[in-house]
Amino acid sequence: MVQGLGKDYDGSEVLKDVSLSVDRGEVLGLVGPTGAGKTTLLRLINLLERPTAGSITFGGLKLTECSDAEKVAIRRRMAMVFQKPVMFSYSVYYNVSYGLKIRGIKDKCEVEAVLKEVGLGSYAHREATTLSGGEAQRVALARAIITKPELLLLDEPTANLDPKMAKIIGDLILRQADGGAAVILATHDMGLCLRLSDRTVVLVNGRLLATGRAEEVLGL
Ligand SMILES: Nc1ncnc2c1ncn2[C@@H]1O[C@H](COP(=O)(O)OP(=O)(O)OP(=O)(O)O)[C@@H](O)[C@H]1O
Ligand SMILES: [Mg+2]
For the chain, what is the HEC assignment? Predict the structure, then answer.
């Protein structure tokens, strides 16, 4: 779905000729050193930035050729959890239900169920901006999965979590793929990548160096 993708920032090439695809039901691990371009790649797929070269196809549609209205519709079929999640200055409940609200869905039970899944069952009425890093990350994940995205883009989703919570969140990510989502998981956590990913790609200096099973490409 990503073909020959390139991205320049101020003349410096951050992504070079990147091609990859991910199927529904599959977790694709995305690893590589800091500054390799992982976040940039996820942001391009999430239509937050325009590629300098190449194309992105989603559900048979070439995103670079879509109208703005089509792009809005497509973005609603995907969800991204950012490396540094931004919380709206309202309750946790508001933050999680926001994605449903913009899609015109009202479902209070669903919000509570998803908060329980991320281990924040009693947090609905907390002010979201006062959460710890790990709590905010889990609220961001709840906000993403509640919309049942076809494509889930995760940027270091366990970076702020202790090992026990990282395990719980890992299981939750696997359940999203089992439920039919395509998942791209950018992570520095090789153990997580090994456990969760069906295939892994290695990005170094903006180029894809290897694709394969995590054990093979990570040399584990
Ligand atoms: N908006 C921007 N303007 C200029 N340079 C940028 C911009 N966004 C990212 N970069 C640069 O692009 C490169 C890739 O950044 P990116 O955030 O994609 O890396 P990453 O692989 O996600 O790194 P990390 O593992 O640290 O999260 C970096 O050198 C970064 O400084
Ligand atoms: Mg990053």
Answer: CEEEEEEEECCEEEEEEEEECCCCCCEEEEECCCCCCHHHHHHHHCCCCCCCEEEEEECCEEHHHCCHHHHHHHHCCEEEECCCCCCCCCEHHHHHHHHHHHCCCCCHHHHHHHHHHCCCCCCCCCEHHHCCHHHHHHHHHHHHHCCCCCEEEEECCCCCCCHHHHHHHHHHHHHHHHCCCEEEEECCCHHHHHHHCCEEEEEECCEEEEEECHHHHCCC
Which of these, 23, 22, 152, 142, lies nearest to 79 by C-alpha position? 152
- Tell me which fold the domain 2-217 belongs to: Rossmann fold (3.40.50)
- Distance from the Cα of residue 40 to its chain's centroid: 12
pLDDT digits (tens, 9 = 90+) for 63-114: 888 888 999 999 999 999 998 899 999 999 999 999 888 888 877 789 999 9
Q: CB within 8 A of 112, min separation 6: which ones?
A: 121, 124
Amino acid at 185: L
Q: Give, for ligand 1, the residue of 5, 10, 14, 42 to mutate: max count of ligand atoms closer than 8 Å to Cβ.
A: 14
- CB-defined site of ligand 1, < 6 Å: 9, 14, 32, 34-40, 83
Distance from C-alpha of 115 to C-alpha of 33, rounded to nearest angstrom: 32
Q: Tell me the CA–centroid distance for residue 55 and ligand 1, in Å.
A: 20
Residue ranges of domains in the chain = 2-217
pLDDT at residue 59 in the model:
86
